[in-house]
Structures are given as C-alpha cells and as structure tokens.
Amino acid sequence: MLVTTIHYGLLIALAIALLFAAFTDIRRRQIDNWLNAAIALGAPVFWWSSGLSLWPDVALQLGVAIAAFAILAGLFALRVMGGGDVKLLTALALWIEPMLFLQLIVIMALSGGVLTVVMGSWHFLRRERDRLAIPYGVAIAIGGLWVLGANYLPDSAYAAAFEGADSVAAANGLTENAI
C-alpha cells in the first residue's frame, strides 16, 4: 500500500510540475532548470515504486532518454526548440515507458501545431512584426498530462482504491475463503 501511495503521489507531483512548466513557459518563455532537474531526479524513485528492474527496464528508460536528448539537442542546435523544452522532454523520457513516450511526442506535436496556428493567427491579426515565440512547454505539458491521465493515473488510482478495500476486507474477515 505504501509503495502504491508513493507511486500515485509521484505521478501527481509530475502532473503538477508539468502544469508549472507550462505556466512559466507562457509567462516567461522559459522552463526553469531546477524544475527539469527535479523531474529527472524523481524518476529513480518512480522506477522503484513501479517495480522496474535494472535490466532491462531501467536501462531501456535511460536509453530512450539519451536518444531523446541527442535528437532534441540537434533541434536545439538548429534553433527549432528551446533548451528548457529539450531538458523537459528528456526528463519525461525517464518517466514514461518507450511506447507511451512516442504517444506523448505525437500528442505534443499535434497540440503544438494547434498552438502555433492559434498564436500565429493572433500575431498576424495584431500586425506584430517581431519573431513569434511559441511556448512549446505548453504542448509538452499537454502531451505529458494526456499520457499520464490515460495510462498511469487510472491504474494507480484503481490500485490504491482496491488495495485499501482488500486490506479492510481482510481485517474484517471478509475474504473469499471466509464465505
């Protein structure tokens, strides 16, 4: 039960961190290094609470994060993506299992496209001449929250609810064998 509570708490903390990253990116066009570091440093505790083994599970998470960083650093070098965005996505790659990380990337790209069209239209209507800066942390947060909500939080909430119910039933002698 304690591990499930820690697991669920970590997922909620990650969701809050993603919301904070989106907020600061909208407000300042910056995602703080301390926030990205906190997300990355929370991953090993999440691995433990998830029961991941060092080989191959944790090694795979690290491999995906390294690959993501290499690709995203290239996009940063091309000035397509900001440094905070690169670090946030790399930190998320430590948390999200590989196939779901691909889902996050697709949702991020779609929501980022919508965000770009909306902000570009607003920029055009206001006849602004300066370079349009898209707060892509918002799209990253949308993708991350989507993946968390659809794949991680329901399982954790379900497990927490029913582990608690099972322990109450056992304490009251209401098990299948008692009937």
Automatic annotation (TrEMBL):
The chain crosses the membrane at residues 6-26, 33-52, 58-78, 99-122, 134-153. One of its GO terms (cellular component) is plasma membrane. It is a multi-pass membrane protein. Keywords: Cell membrane, Membrane, Transmembrane, Transmembrane helix. One of its GO terms (molecular function) is aspartic-type endopeptidase activity. It is found in: Cell membrane. Residues 12-116 form the Prepilin type IV endopeptidase peptidase domain. This is Peptidase. It comes from Erythrobacter litoralis.
